[in-house]
Amino acid sequence: MNVCKSVAWILIVFLILLGGLIAPFGDILGTKIGKARFSILKLRPKKTATIITIITGGFISSISIGLLILVSEEFRQRLFVDIPFLQKTLDESKKALIPLQEERKELEGKIIQKEKELNQLKNNIKEFRRGNIVIKRGQTLFIAEVNSSSNIKLNLTKIFNEADRFVRKIVIPLNKEAKNILLWRPSDITKIEKTASRGGNWILLIKSATNVLKGDNYVFVSPDLLENKFVVKKGDVITSAILEENDLNLKSINLEIKSLLRKTRAEIKSRGSQVSEINTNGNFVRKIRDFLQENQNIKFKLEVVSLKDSKTVEPIIVEINILKIAS
């Protein structure tokens, strides 16, 4: 290590001396060329002298680098090994940054979307304060069955006119002459026609795309075509729960019934039902009360049972049965 340091110091001193010797030589050479009025490539002698001086300086640098390469192994290591390695590392780092940049763009997009939603929410709040909203964003305005066996275009035109007439009564009830205030994208209609043409039984939901104020001239809507299928059939047990002996009281049962009805709403939604409420047969309250008077210290089961066949947009009617469970 000491030898390497000594060589390095000797090399530095040598380079300083060499630069000191060559620099005056270059200056003297440039001066003499200037005085001799010597010209290269038809340049003025002064410019020729400047070029000679520059070449001399470059010569000094070349000799310095050459000597460093020749004498110093560490310099060769840095120049020919470490620099390419660093370049390769830099290239790999740039490649590694690409996913991060994409993630940043995605995050910025989400932030922009959230800002838009926040601005929309602020506008909604302002409109609510004004008290002029008659239709809320996402509200279902009209429901109709699409008959795929008939002329679909004619069927959709009829549905559109009926929906338009219904919405006009809400938004501009005093304007009897207004027509076609509903606006929906042609691409939505094309998609619905294409889907319905495959056959089957379909339900068309027309929902408001924005909040609508009373007196607005146009209502932007988004139609949604759903398969009109059976969600539940008569006698189906939709949800159920088992209660223990210590739960055999009206308070515990009422809490369990509320929980069951919440689960039932979630279940029919998952099956594709578009109704928001469940209708119950009021007789089940009396049946449960009579059951509790006659039965004590047993396990029992509560079942939410459908009382009728119900399709996608048809009301769900249920009753709640209480059953003994054999020990």
Written overview of the protein:
It is a single chain. This protein is α+β, with helices and mostly antiparallel strands and 327 residues long. It has 3 domains: 2-71; 134-228; 231-324, no CATH class. Helix content is 56%, strand content 19%. It has 7 helices and 12 strands. The protein has helices at 2-35, 45-71, 73-130, 152-171, 186-196, 250-270, 283-294; strands at 133-135, 140-147, 182-183, 201-208, 212-213, 219-227, 230-232, 237-243, 278-280, 300-306, 310-311, 316-324. The strands form 4 sheets. The chain has a 4-stranded mixed beta sheet. The chain has a 4-stranded mixed beta sheet with strand order 8-10-12-9. The chain starts with a helix and ends with a strand. The mean pLDDT is 77.
Helix content: 55-70%
Number of helices: 7
Overall mean pLDDT:
77
* Main sheet strand line-up: 2-4-6-3
Classify the beta-strand content into a percent band: 15-25%
- Domain count: 3
Question: Terminal Cα separation, in Å?
Answer: 90 Å
Radius of gyration: 44 Å
What profile does the largest beta sheet have?
4 strands, mixed
Low-confidence stretches: none
User: H/E order of the elements?
Assistant: HHHEEHEHEEEEEHEHEEE
How many β-strand runs?
Answer: 12
- Anisotropy-based shape: elongated
Helix/strand-derived class? alpha+beta
Give me the oligomer status. single chain
